[in-house]
Amino acid sequence: MSDLGTRSARALAAMIRRKQISSRELLDDFLDAVAETNEPLNAVVTLDEEGARKAAARADEAIARGEALGPLHGLPMTIKDTFETAGVRTTAGNPVWKDHVPARDAETVARLKRAGAVVFGKTNLPFMAADVQSYNDLFGCTNNPHDLSRTPGGSSGGAAVAVATGMTSLELGSDIGGSIRTPSHWTGIYGHKPSYGIVSNLGHLPGPPGAQAQPDLGVAGPLARSAEDLGIALDVLAGPGQHDRVAWHLDLPRARHDRISDYRVAAWFEDPALPVDDAVRTRLEATADALRSAGVRVDEKARPGFDLWELIRAYNRLLMPIVLADIPPETLAGLERAAAAFDKDDESDAAMAARAPLIQHREWLRTDELREQWRSAFREFFANYDVLLCPVTSVPAIPHDHSPFPERTIEVNGESRPYTDLFGWISPATTCRLPATVAPVGPTPEGLPVGVQIVGPYLEDHTTITFARLLGEVIGGFEAPSKG
Fold this sequence. Notes:
The chain is an alpha/beta fold and 484 residues long. Helices cover 35% and strands 14% of the residues.
């Protein structure tokens, strides 16, 4: 196995265009990397060598004719196992779909292929993409390359591990509960959650195969070894879906600034609602200090003007009906009994959590109005600041914990906290439909990666991605996991 797996997708695609390496040779290199690296990690769960070799051969033949298919011409890559991929098993970790082989690609996969990408495999995730850890009964558990006893996160956990360890050039993930951002943070790579609505999710599982509705909150986006790769991939992925392209197009604005010193930065590293572990906070504060040394004004007191805990509660009211849309009737009955055990006037956290999956449409409408008020607050906030820096989660990668969900906890500064805290810091960007880029900012004393979440104005995705690239020039970017 060569060192090609540490290079950016942009660099690899340029090598193919310049005929320094063929698509077939690069595919062989990634397949060798999977053979040598994947077993203890269990990140890549399905391979399509035959289909990929045919696609790589077509890419090489096009290069020989002087033709270019797009910015990803001949670039081998894997895809999270939530995205339907024509002729390749796609399961979302659900045993019911263990033999599901789609006849057509999800819209995102089709866009990647039209840009020249060669899809050679699928990566692991939790059952139905519904956890912060990546394990399921079909394929087992994915391990963090920085510490095999810990999870890489979820739900795009296999995707993040494949990128971090050089088993793929680029990845396509999805994010409704931090599923791109948390694995990027916990494995030390770059990830981007796009502004809601600019990337089609048609062909994503769940919903079920053939579903046409695209739920609230959820997005698809790239994971990569460089911020520049995120921008290239986003430009490929973003655009109107098949039902909209007859009438509109997307023209995302350039980044607000090209120099790091021109950025107006707000930093939100602490909140009473969500304590942050010292190991994470130390790295974030060191990042702020490095930015100041580079001439950036960083305001650690600026806030977007709402109560974080109120927003988290609203996020849960919006999220839980989506996550539980297809639950069996007996499970729904259990949720109804749990909610009925609380007095109707009880507004405790436990009571609110119990009611969230059972929200009625009129309650959803009230919550949606709250969301629009918070989006307006963010618009005002980003008139004065270009980006908002936040934790991704309050802790670095956690040990594997496959106990029943209600029994799980995390440890923050030696104290037990609810497992659901892991969804807290990602909720403002998700709820308010904002772009958020994760960039690595160095390890904890234990050697676990830490990422910073860079939140930006709606539709200004290139601002957060460009800031992530410039930040990497200040503090260093991706570093491959130690093989020791």
